[in-house]
Amino acid sequence: WGVYDIDGGKEATRQDLRIGKVRIRISTLETGKAYRNTYPLLMLVNGGVKKLGEIELAVRFVRSAPPLDFLHVYSQPLLPLMHHIKPLTLFQEDMLRNTAVKILAVHLSRSEPPLKPEIVRYMLDADTHTFSMRKIRANWLRIVNVVAGMIDVVRWVDDTRFWKNPTATLLVHVLVVMLIWFPDLIFPTLAFYLFVIGAWNYRFRSRASLPHFDPKLSLADAADRDELDEEFDVVPSNRPPEMVRSRYDKLRAVGARVQTILGEVAAQGEKMQALVTWRDPRATAIFVGLCLVVALVLYLVPTKMVAMASGFYCFRHPIFRDRKPSPILNFFRRLPSLSDRLM
């Protein structure tokens, strides 16, 4: 739903003022449950988040299709079949999206009461793809939040490998032996583990009102005025040259960090390719020779014995470890990349 201050005069030429909107995802609604809540109408302006009012809504999701047909919808593609047969490029998708917005705006302008194009564009988020430093930081924090779970798993594995919790390490040894000798239990164990996680999190599911726009998640409260002014600036910019130069310098600093990260990712991929491309003859010879030795060992020694030895070696006690990086990691870091050829 969108809320606008609509001027009903036929000769009105000014644009309707944005008051706010409420966005509710249907898949988050429970079947047959009535939701009633008061939503604040928030708008992000040059000065920050501004509350322009409240609206009370009552929503109830009713399923009319049979249960199996209703669940079958989750397996259906989001786009028509022709899109998967002949996929559109990103540029074509943007053109199609803009054309659809224009067609819908023209259609709704003939309804009663007529809706102006700015209302349709606002409801369809047609103008949300502009550059925003605030959104960059918000999306980065979202990525960090997603990766945090995997980081916790890696830390737990490291703690287990270094025997910070001897009981957990011994249990992991038992689990490794069981999964190696009974490999048929690997996938059932993984599936049961995911089931336990989902069932455990069911107790902590959100029972509050339906989610609304979150200023904290959007970093709308933490953004300074210069970032907001840059976000609402038009293209081409109509700000003073000094301000545009300052923003350009800030953007160059961000671009330099992104450039460094992209270079590191490309270098790691090129090092993987260098293992077999003989760019470093000695390193490739070592790698090819080790692959031959590993192949012969795996042919002669039972796989279960090799897997068990690898597992016990990985979780060996710290007194048998060296604080220096492993030889495999040192070998990989010494592989060449194309970074030296960049000008």
TrEMBL record:
The chain crosses the membrane at residues 140-158, 170-197, 283-301. Residues 188-343 form the Multiple C2 domain. It comes from the Eukaryota. InterPro entries: MCTP_C, QUIRKY-like. It holds the Pfam family PRT_C. Keywords: Membrane, Repeat, Transmembrane, Transmembrane helix. PANTHER family: MULTIPLE C2 DOMAIN AND TRANSMEMBRANE REGION PROTEIN 16, PHOSPHORIBOSYLANTHRANILATE TRANSFERASE ISOFORM 1. This is Multiple C2 domain-containing protein. It comes from Noccaea caerulescens.
